[in-house]
Amino acid sequence: MTALPIPYLSDRLNSGPARPAQKRDFQLGPVARTAIGIAGFTMTFLSLFAVARGVLGLTPELPHLKNIAVIIHVASVLPAVPLGAYVLLARKGTPRHRLLGKVWLVLMLVTATSAIFIQTSGGLSFIHIFVPITFHAAWKTIATARKGDIAGHKKHLVVTYMTALMIPGIVAFALPGRLMNVMLLW
Fold first, then answer.
1. CA-CA distance, 65 to 43, in Å (whole number)?
2. Which residues in the chain land under pLDDT 50?
C-alpha cells in the first residue's frame, strides 16, 4: 500500500523553516461590512419606496423632474446605491468585482457631474461639497488599485460609499422640498 502525498503538507514539510505567508486581505472587516450592509439596504429600500410612490402617483406634482440634470442625477444614483454595497460586500479581486467596480465608479462620476448642474436659488448649496470629494475619491480609488495598495483602495471605497453616497442620500431624504423628501414623505 502506498501513501498519497498531500501537496500542501508535503511542500511545507520539505521547504525548510516556515516563512510568514504574504496575505493580501481583500475582504472588509465585520464593522465595515455591517455598516455598509445596513446603510446600503436602508437607502435602497427608501429609494425604491419613494420611486414607487412617485410612479404610482401618490406624491404631489414633481416639478424637479422637468430638469434634465435632476433626471440624470437620480437615474445614476439609484443603481449606484445597491451596486456599491454589492461590490463592497461581494468577493474581491475577481473579474466581476473589477467590472462592477468600474461601472459603480462611472455611475458615481455621472452622479457628481450632474449635481453641478442642479442648483437651488440660482447657486450651489452646501451639499455640492460632495462633488469634489467624489472626484478626488474616484482618482484615489483608481490610483491605489493600480499601485496594488489594497488597504488604501478599500479605505477610499468605503469612505466614498459612506460619505459621497450615504450622507447626501440622507440629506436628500431629510431636507423638505428635495425630490426624494417629497417622494417619500408627502
1. 20
2. 4, 7-23
Burial class (CB in 10 A: 0-12, 13-18, 19+), 170: middle
Distance of CA 53 to the CA centre of its chain: 24
Tens of pLDDT, residues 41-76: 999 999 999 999 989 989 888 888 889 999 999 999
- Say if CB 28 and CB 89 are below 8 A apart: yes
Q: How far apart are CA 27 and CA 84, in angstroms?
A: 15
Q: Which residues contact 51 (CB under 8 A, 6 or more apart)?
A: 78, 183
Count of positions (residues) in the chain: 186
Q: What is the DSSP letter of 165?
A: I
Residue of 160, 64, 159, 163 lying closest to 114 (CA atoms): 64
pTM for the complete prediction? 0.81
Greatest pairwise CA separation for the chain in angstroms = 86
Measure the CA–CA gap between 151 and 153, rounded to whole angstroms. 5
